[in-house]
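Let us practice reading a record.
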Amino acid sequence: MISSQRIALFFIFLLFVASTSTAQSDRVALLTEVSGTVELARSGSANFENAEWGTPLFEGDQIRTAASSQAVILFSNNNMMTISGGNTFAISAGATSSSTSQPVSGAIISNDADLTLHRAGEGEIAVLGGLRGNDSNISVRLKSPMNTKTSSALPEFSWSVNDDFDIYRISVLSSNGVIWTGETDTNTMSYPESAPTLEPGTTYFWQVEAEAMLDVSRSEMSSFEVLSEEDSKALRIGLDSLELMYTESEQEANYHYLLGSLYAQYGVFGDAIQSFEWIAENHSDSPLAHRILGNLYAEIGRKDAAINSLQKAVDLTQ
């Protein structure tokens, strides 16, 4: 049964997505890579200021890059353009047909609006605050997979602990009861091939029991779902496209944005969070990075993490 807190968090997430501004909905592009010194002058202004990751761009804006700097712009029609160092570029929807741009496969990102066209406000954070967890009193806290879909039928389970324990027992359940249990002395364990097959489209639940002498602590229960064969195939096509677009040395903010957006598109929020955590860590001055991350945390039920990230987004815009 879905808890009232989970339902409330879900509708809060939808509220974030729906609360768009007119200016944002008219944007032409998004700045998805900022390396070195990248500056922005809004349409009609000659005043250039430092640009941050995730800045929405509109018709007539200008992007200027210093020497040895680079900017990557993702247009609303999913064309992507790289602006090398020492250049000034005027934003125009028509510029997406330039030979310097390249299309981003729809399999990678069908529509980034759900991630970027919303604002985190004090009201939303206040509602989340009413649902704030008391994680400091939880001895065993589940980490992954947590209320998300997974692309693997053999997911790896991970959790964190506040005390010392000797053994951990993981139980996976379906609506018919327990289907598998396993034991380990570490805080990770993969679902084994010898266990009953996890069927795509079925919701499963898992829980950890931690034992130390005669003391037993139990985590809360979390859910996950294996992607359908159709979605798994589509996700694989998108991942393969990204591998062709980027070498390992090029996997910076733009890559993580596309990767995170791809995972979020298919509901694989655990992997999406990893990508946006990278962006938020490396572009800590970007309100949008923290806003997206906060929304994803809220979606999987990590209430405290969601509040912290959304509060950072608000603080950075004040």
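A brief commentary: The first strand starts at residue 29 and ends at 35.
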